[in-house]
Amino acid sequence: MKLKISLFTAVLISVISLIVWETNWRSKGYAPSIDDNKDLWVVQRHKVNTLTDQDVILTGSSRVLFDIQLDVWEGLTGIRPIQLASVGSSPLPIFHDLVENTDFSGTILVGVTPGLFFSTLFPEADPWKRPQSKVDHYYDQTYAEKLNHRISLPLQKNLVFISAEEESTDDDKDLKTLLENVQISDRIPKGYPPFYQFGEIDIDRNMRMLKRTETDTAFANTIIRAWVFIMSSGGPPPDVKGTMGYFLKDAKKFQERGGNLILLRCPSSGGVLDGETKFLPRATLFDVLADSAKAHAYHFQDYEQLTGYNCPEWSHLSASDADRFTKDFVNIILKDNAIPNKKTN
Amino acid sequence: MLFNSLSFVVFLAVVLILYYSKIFNWTNKKRMLLFASYVFYGLWNPPLVILLWISTIVDWTAGKKLMEVQGERQRKMWLLLSLFVNLGFLAFFKYGDFLLENFTALMNSIGVEFQAQPMDIILPMGISFYTFQTMSYTIDIYRRKIKPANTFLDFALYVTFFPQLVAGPIVRAKELISQFYEPKKATLNQFIWGTFLLTAGLFQKVVLADTLLASTSDDIFDSGKIMHVLDSWTGTLAFSGQIFFDFAGYSTCAIGIALMLGIILPDNFRYPYASLGFSDLWKRWHISLSSWLKDYLYIPLGGNRHGITRMYVALMLTMLLGGLWHGAAWTFVVWGGLHGTYLILERLQRKYLPFEINAKNGIFLALLTYTCVNITWVFFRATSFTDAWNMIKSMLFLNPEGQKILDNFDIIKVLVVITLTFLCHWYMRDSSMKEKANHVSPYVLGLLWAMMFFLICISQGSGEQFIYFQF
C-alpha cells in the first residue's frame, strides 16, 4: 500500500474542496456568523455570579435580543447589560433561575412578548423547554463542552460553512440542512414554512438585524410567513393565570431582596401587532401584569419616542431603529431613575 | 470527551506530540497516556474518575493476591471481591433505578402499598465496558490463564486506555497489557492507516449515523403515533443503520487512534449485516462483547457440555443478560430474548432442516437474517412495549390507518443508504478494509479519504453523543 500517496492526495483534495465550498457560500453573499447556542448563553450566565447591585440583566425573547443594543445602553449608562434573552422563549424559566439560584439584587429587565410570556408552564412546550434547556446547560455543561465552545468560536467567526445553528434554520450550510431542504413531491402536508436567519449575534450575545432583512422585502416576507403560520396554527390557549402567578411569585421574591424589576413590551407592527392586539390585549395581560408586579413597566405604545417603528418582518427592529429605540428607552428609564447610571454616579 | 469534537482533535494532537517527542522514556510515556486518559474521561465528569480508580485498585490487588495465595477458598474470595465491586458498581449506577422501580411494582402487585422516590443516579460513561474489561482480568488470573500485569502502571493503563475506555472494544488483558511492556511506536504506514481509520470511523458516526439516519429514526420512534407501514419500516431500517454506524464508527476510531500510538486493538465488527444466520451475526457484531459473554457466562453456565436442553437454557440466559447489559429496561431484555430465540431456532433448523449455503441462496439468507434483526431493533429503540408493539404491527401491515410522517426524500435517503450498506457488507463479508485498500490505486484511496473528510467537515453537527456511551 502506498499510503503516503493516498494521504497526500487526500490532504490536497480536502483542502481544495473546502476552499471551493467556502468560496461558493461567500460568493452567494453569506458571511461567517456565530451560533446563538446554549454554550454562548452559558458564558453570559456565568457572568451573573460576579455582578453587583449596580448591574443589569436582560431577559425575554428575541425582541429583547434585537431591540436592546448593548453598546448604546453602555454608552448612556456606563453599564454593559448581560444579555440572557432567548429566541422563541418565555422569560419565566430564566427569571426563575436568576431569582432562585443567585443572590443578584441589581436590575433585571424582562421582555414581555405576550404570545410567549403568557403562553405556558408546560415543561415540554417549546417556549418553556428552549430557555429551560439553556438553564440546565449552565448547570450540566461539561468541561469538554466548554472547551469545544472555545475552540469552535474562531472557526465560527471565520468560516461560513461552519454555521449549523442550534436553532436550525433553512439557510444553515451543514449537510443535514442541505438534505432536509430537498423535496420530492408531497407525501405529507407542508409544515412550517422556510425560516431563515435574519439577525446576527456577537460574542456578548448582542443581536442585530441583517441589512438584508431591511432591504429585501421578499426575504422579510419569508419571515413574516413564518409568524403568520405560528399565529394561525391554532396552538393551545395562553395560560394567563398560571404564567402570571408563577412570575409574580418570583418577582416578589426578587423585589423583597432589593432587586429592581423592569417590564418592557417591545414594538411590533403589521399583522403581528394586529394579532397581538386582537388575541392578547394589553388591558387584560400587560397592564394587569404591570400593576400586579409593582415594577417599572414600559409599553412602547405609551411613549411617543418608542412608537412609530415599522418592523421589517413585523416583530423586530432593524439595526438602526434598535439603536434609536435603545437610546430613547434608556433615556426614559434614566429619567425615571429606574436604573443606575454610572456616568452620573 | 467525544471523538467527534474539536476538543478531541486538540487533545489527540497534544498526546501524539508528547508521545513521539524524545522528552519521555517509555515509562513516562505510559504515565503520560494514563494521565491523558484520566483527562479524557474527567472532562466529562471529574468525580466519576474515582470509580475508575477504585476499580483499578481493587482489581490490581485482587489480581496480585490471586497469584500469591494458594488456597482455593482464599482465591475464590479474592475473585468474589473483584466481581462484587465491579458488579456492585453496575448494579448501583446502572440498574439502581430499574431495580427500585421493579421492586415497587412487585410490592404493589401483591397489595403492599409502597412508593419510592427515583434515585436519579448519574450513569458513569462507559461503566459497562470498563467493568467487564477488568472482570475479565481477574477471572483469567483466577483460571490461571494469564499472569497479573507486571506493574501497576501497565494495569492502570489497561483499564483506562482512552481510545477504548468508554465504548470498547472490551479488550482482554492478554491482548493489551503485554503490548505495554515494550516501547511501542507506530510505523509510518501504521500511523497513516490509523489516521485513515479515524477518518472512516468519524465518517460513519458524523455523516452516516448522525446526518443521514438519526433524524428519520428519531422522528419515527419519538412520535408516539401509529405509523404507516412504509414509515415504520423506514424508521426501523434507519435505526439499524444508525446504531451500526454509531457503534462501529466508535470502534473504528478507537482502533485507528490506538494504531497511531503503535497499539493494536482487535476488530469489533465484521460487516454484520451480511451475516448468514444468527450464530454468524454474533461473530460479527460487537465481537468483543459476544466473546466475553461466551467465555464468562455461556461456558460457565454449562455451554454445550450438558445436553441440548441445558445448552438452550444457557444460550437464552446469556442472551437475556446480554440484552440487560445494554440498558436497564425490559425492552432490552426482550431484545436479548429474541436473539436467544433466533439462535435456538437456528440450531433446530441445522439439526432438522439442514441445507447447504451457496452463492445463490446466501444473499437471500443474509437478507432474511437482516430482516429478523430489524424486528429486534424495534424493541431496542422503542421506549415502551406499547410503542414497540405498535411499530411491529405497522411493519406487518396490521395498522392500515397508520400515519405518514416522512416525506419522500427521507424515505429514499434511508433506503439508498441502507441498501448500499447491505450490499457493501455482502461484498466485504469475507474481506477487510485493509485488504480491499491494498487492491485499489493509492489515488483512488486518497480520493475516497478526501470525500469522507470533506463530508465530515460540512456535516459538523453538535457533537452528538455515541449511543453506546449509555450502555
Quick rundown:
Chain A has 345 residues and is of the alpha/beta class. Chain A contains 15 helices and seven strands. Chain B is mainly alpha-helical.
**Helical proportion of chain B?**
55-70%
What gap, in angstroms, lies between the N and C termini of chain A? 74 Å
- Percentage of residues in DSSP E strands of chain A: 5-15%
Q: Helix count of chain B, per DSSP?
A: 19
> What do we call the CATH homologous superfamily of chain A?
SGNH hydrolase
Q: What is the alpha-carbon Rg of chain A in Å?
A: 22 Å
Helix/strand structural class of chain A: alpha/beta
Main sheet strand line-up of chain A? 2-1-3-6-7
The tally of strands of chain A reads 7
Strand content of chain B: under 5%
Q: Give a count of the beta strands of chain B, DSSP E runs of length 2 or more.
A: 0
Order of helices and strands of chain B: HHHHHHHHHHHHHHHHHHH
Given as residue ranges, the uncertain stretches of chain A (5+ residues, pLDDT < 50) are none
What does this structure look like?
The complex is a heterodimer of chains A (345) and B (471). By secondary structure, chain A is of the alpha/beta class. Chain A has a single domain, classed as Rossmann fold. Chain A is built from 15 helices and 7 strands. In chain A, the strands form 2 sheets. In chain A, strands 2-1-3-6-7 form a 5-stranded parallel β-sheet. In chain A, 41% of the residues are buried. Chain B has 2 domains: 179 residues, no CATH class; 201 residues, no CATH class. In chain B, helix 9 packs antiparallel against helix 10, helix 10 packs across helix 15 and helix 10 crosses helix 16. The interface between A and B is large, with 43 and 53 residues.
